[in-house]
Task: inverse folding
């Protein structure tokens, strides 16, 4: 059987989706004229959902990925410890954003509370994503085959999801992505579903589907990081 190098494209797409929606949330919260109560509630719920996804992402890395990489490459311990420490440092600002988002849904927080929480979260989170793409993903590509990477993804990030959960997640990571030919790669999506992924790229503009629809934020694309441009792309 032909062994292929790990292609962690889903990690790059996940990171890009986080950066994209942090920017979109800022655009919405700072919009002249403010937000309707309905949109505030939707935004709060979306940010809460996103923080849950980020928590699963971190737990999968801390409990599943770093130990696997350490076993294959003991010399990578210092980088992997940095990754874990950075996750810990992001935890407090995540809680702050969740609290502000719950307040936005319940009508007891102001959009500026959410902006303040974003100010606390964004710098350490974005720095961590960049660090992981620069120092962590090269280890993944060096020591794992693509089959092993996909087994890790299934175990830590996919199993237990229902079909609606999976579709919501796929729609979210594909939103705003232009490199449509990359969307079917390594996403663990069955062949017949792959043509659908391209159409998910414009889903933010579909009325009723996202909190961004009908606002300039819906046109903000996904800032694919260096992880997708270097090493992953053919
Ligand atoms: Fe990550
Ligand atoms: Fe991470």
Result:
């Amino acid at each position: 059987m032909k062994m292929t190098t790990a292609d962690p494209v889903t990690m790059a797409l996940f990171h890009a989706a986080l950066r994209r929606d942090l920017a979109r949330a800022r655009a919405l919260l700072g919009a002249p004229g403010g937000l309707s109560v309905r949109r505030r509630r939707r935004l709060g719920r979306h940010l809460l959902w996103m923080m849950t996804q980020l928590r699963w992402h971190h737990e999968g890395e801390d409990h599943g990925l770093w130990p696997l990489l350490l076993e294959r490459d003991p010399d990578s311990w210092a980088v992997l410890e940095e990754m874990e420490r950075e996750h810990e440092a992001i935890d407090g600002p995540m809680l702050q954003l969740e609290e502000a988002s719950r307040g936005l849904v319940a009508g007891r927080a102001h959009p500026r509370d959410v902006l303040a929480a974003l100010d606390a979260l964004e710098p350490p989170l974005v720095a961590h994503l960049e660090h992981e793409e620069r120092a962590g993903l090269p280890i993944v590509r060096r020591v794992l085959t693509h089959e092993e990477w996909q087994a890790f993804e299934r175990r830590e990030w996919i199993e237990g999801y229902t079909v609606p959960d999976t579709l919501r997640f796929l729609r979210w990571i594909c939103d705003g992505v232009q490199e449509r030919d990359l969307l079917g790669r390594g996403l663990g999506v069955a062949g017949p579903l792959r043509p659908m992924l391209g159409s998910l790229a414009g889903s933010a503009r579909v009325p009723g589907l996202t909190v961004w629809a009908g606002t300039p934020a819906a046109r903000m694309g996904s800032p694919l990081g260096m992880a997708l441009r270097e090493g992953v792309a053919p």
Q: What stands out?
A: The two ends are 21 Å apart (CA to CA). Helices lie at 9-29, 37-72, 77-106, 111-143, 146-158, 163-174, 194-200, 226-232. The domain at 9-222 is CATH 1.20.120 (Four Helix Bundle (Hemerythrin (Met), subunit A)).
